[in-house]
Predict the 3D structure of the following.
Amino acid sequence: MEHGGDLLSYEMYYNGELIDYSSNINPLGPPKGLREVLMDSFKNLEAYPDMKYRKLKKSISNYLKCNEENTIVGNGAVELINDFIMLANRVLICTPSFSEYEKRAIIHEKEVIRIPYNSDFTIDMKAIGNIIEKDDLIILGNPNNPTGLRLDKIELTILHNIIKKSGAYLVLDEAFFEFCSGDYDSIELFRESNYENVGIIRAATKFFALPGIRLGYGCTSMALAKEISKIELPWSVNSFAEAAGNFIFNDKEYIRTSKEYIEIERQYMYQELSRLSLIKVFPTETNYILIKLLKWDEEYVFNFFLERGIVIRKCSSFTGLDKNYIRVAIKARKDNEKLIEIFNELEKM
C-alpha cells in the first residue's frame, strides 16, 4: 500500500462499510454550502478556466496573506511538488517521508539523495549542511508524513539560512498545516525575505476534506513563481476546483471549528493509545499518529483491524520504516472509540 484511501481493494474482506483510517481527511467533511457552489458552477464547464487563475489566486493570496505574484496553483500539491523538482539539479529527501517526493524526482531523472531523520524523527541539520549544493532542492513535510512532526521555528530559520548560503532551494510540503497549533506560520516567517529560495505548498485535500477536487496552492518568490509558470501545464486546475477555492477559504467558522475538533480528538487518541503497553505511540502535531508495534508486524495488525471493519495504514512502504510501524488517522469520536477498543482487544490476544 503506497498510499492510503484504497478501500476498494479491501471491501471484499468485510461484510459492511469500512472505516478508513489509512487516509487523513478532516472528519467534519467539506465546508457547508460548497455543494451548492459547485452545482452553480456547472455552467462554467462550457468554457476554459482562466489560464492565469486571477480570481483564484486573489482568493488564495488573501487566505495566505501573501501577494498574488507570489501565489502558485496546481492540480493538487503533488503537481506543485513535481514542478519544483523539474527546476532542481539534485533532490534531497529526508526519510521516512511521502513517497511521491522521490518518485517524482526519479521520473524526471534527478539524482536523489536520502538523508535519514534522527531517531526521534527530527532533521539531521549537520548532514544536510554537509551535503547540500547550489541548485539542489530539499523537500520537507511540515508536518512530515508519516511521523506527524513539524519543524521547530528556530530550526527552520537556521535551515533556511544554510540553504540560501548554498544557493539551494527549500520546499515545505504543508498539506497538513491547518491541523497544527498556531505557534508559527511559515508564510509569515518568510515574508520579510520575499520567500527567497523557498516554496510553501498547501492543499484543499486534507483540512478542507476535498481529495477529489485536486486543488494545490502555495507561495514562493516572484522569481520562482515565474519559472514555474513556464513549465506548468495549462488549465491544470479545473472549473470545480477553481469554484471551490473561491469559496472555502472564506469560511472562518469552519476553519475554527475544525481546528478545535481535531485538537480535542488528537489529545484523546494520544492519551488512550499511550496507555497500551504493546505499542509505542509517537507525538504528533497533525491529524494522524505513527505507531510502532512491539509484538506484531504490520500485516497481522492490518488484517486484525480489517476483519473488524477498519483499514489502517501499513508503513513499510515508507523508506526508513520497517514492518513494525503503522499509521492511523484521527477521526470522529465514535470511530476513534472503536479503533481504541480494537487495540485493547489486540493487546489481550
Q: What stands out?
A: The radius of gyration is 20 Å. Residues 276 and 344 are 7 Å apart (CA to CA).
